[in-house]
Amino acid sequence: KLAKDFFGRVKNILETENIKYEPRVVMEVLTKYFPDWRRTLNELQRYSTSGQIDAGILVNISEVNINELVAALKAQEFTNVRKWIVHNLDNDPVRMYRRIYDSLYEFADSSTIPHAVLILSKYQYQSAFVADQEINLLACLTEIMVDVKWK
Questions:
Q1: Going by C-beta distance under 8 Å and a sequence separation of 6 or more, which residues neighbour residue 135?
Q2: pTM tops 0.85, yes or no
Q3: Residue of 94, 80, 79, 72 lying closest to 145 (CA atoms)
Q4: Which CATH architecture has domain 60-147?
Q5: Where along the chain do its domains lie?
Q6: Beta bridge partners of 34
Q7: pLDDT in tens, 27-65
């Protein structure tokens, strides 16, 4: 009920400001940042600068997240890796492992990609059985942080 009411309020704001939007995309952003309404509004405001909110912003959100993660992994900033995980924990684990895998070819040294793939495979398999996804993903990324050489 609360999310539905907030969605109605967001639609009203967007219409008042003459921002074109796709309701499905707005709902996905709202769901991603629930219950942080301030963050939801900030994200929508940031992506509405072009005058339109459409499926293109969803790609931008995932790219920014991966870039933040890779920067933290390269710098071996364990605390920031953990913060990234907490911030992105609402994503589907399978999609998360896939995004990390896809980013390897852009950011990792080619000599260490095979080892990173084995690490991802092991933890992705384990994610189906673990009680706490955060701990599992943090263990995976810690192993990658230590073992992978970055470009």
A1: none
A2: no
A3: 72
A4: Up-down Bundle (1.20)
A5: 2-54, 60-147
A6: none
A7: 888 887 777 888 888 888 888 887 888 877 766 665 557
